[in-house]
Amino acid sequence: MEDLAKVYILIPLYNEATVIEGLVKQLSSVFKNIVIVNDGSTDDSQEILEKLDIHLINHPINMGQGSAISTGFNYIYETDAKALITFDADGQHSVEDAKIFAYEILKSESDIIFGSRFLEHSENIPFLKKTVLTLASKITNLFSKMELTDTHNGMKAIKKDSLAKINIEIDGYAFESELIQCVSKKNLKYSELPTNIVYTEYSKAKGQSLMNGFIILEDLIKL
């Protein structure tokens, strides 16, 4: 755990009261610093989060996942972190994957490591979600002139110094594509690692829908 003390976990959160305590407990067994941006939750999330040993930031209203990520980036940039890992709050990501990403970003030449469901575990992705993700990846790669297999994966490892070159202005889901545009324009070094995402009924209900895919497309056109 000492080796990973300078790798912070960043979790954007909205209404995850039923799962967040267990998730923090799992992450805390590996990571010392967990930053959670509570993005205006209307359930009991805040009360639960206030009792946990984490860095807690509260948005007074729901501002969107992109806004929560941006808030977290700004916070972590002022800490002693060497790198951060973004991690979804719904429990679908693997703590073991986060550990692999953490060690890799500390030794890698990459400024950012993108998680990909398509490198080893594409058979686990529900058909509709796979369709949305494939379309979003093709469009994002076309706009950014990059080659990524999964452009909207919630797990990424980023060196802290690279945050100065990443500016997130989109509040919603398409912030992922905006981040990729920053990586492309600033010539940041990037790579991919496989992620094994567990799709429970709960996480599927909280994840991307087909309509969100069209929203992402609309936001991409605005970039």
Strand-residue proportion: 15-25%
Average pLDDT, to the nearest integer? 87
Number of helices: 8
The main pleated sheet reads as:
7 strands, mixed
Helix content: 25-40%
| Category by helix and strand content | alpha/beta
The largest beta-sheet arranges its strands as: 3-2-1-4-6-5-7
Distance between the termini: 40 Å
Shape: globular
| Secondary-structure element series | EHEHEHEHEHEHEHH
DSSP strand tally: 7
Uncertain segments: none
Polypeptide structure, described:
The model has no long low-confidence stretch (mean pLDDT 87). It is built from eight helices and seven strands. The chain is 39% helix and 16% strand. With 223 residues, the chain is α/β, with parallel strands linked by helices.
